[in-house]
């Protein structure tokens, strides 16, 4: 994969996560294409910048959302102007100082270059519960703690 494309897709993802962590609904929605899809942790499906903004605005205004701690696991091209990024994510609840394993997630982002600008076509945040396999939850949590605590 072209390193420039890889870097641009990683920057898009990092800016999306930064917008979430900054509780910036507009900034987050603007990262999506007009038909971009966001599938949330609870399974909610939002399509397009307006719907994403209308959904996130009230959440950020009325709930103390936890920031993400993320680690990119891979980026690959899906063609000349699209790419897939996979990351793992954890959250540190407000008032806490460590990652809460029950909300660990796999994050998938599909990006496409539209008019020389990379935009999110799909962002999916899927719970990583690993039912019946607590060692996998702990392994992911430890990997994310390495990011959070700079280990």
From TrEMBL:
Residues 9-120 form the DUF4440 domain. InterPro entries: DUF4440, NTF2-like_dom_sf, Steroid_delta5-4_isomerase. It comes from the Bacteria. It holds the Pfam family DUF4440. This is DUF4440 domain-containing protein.
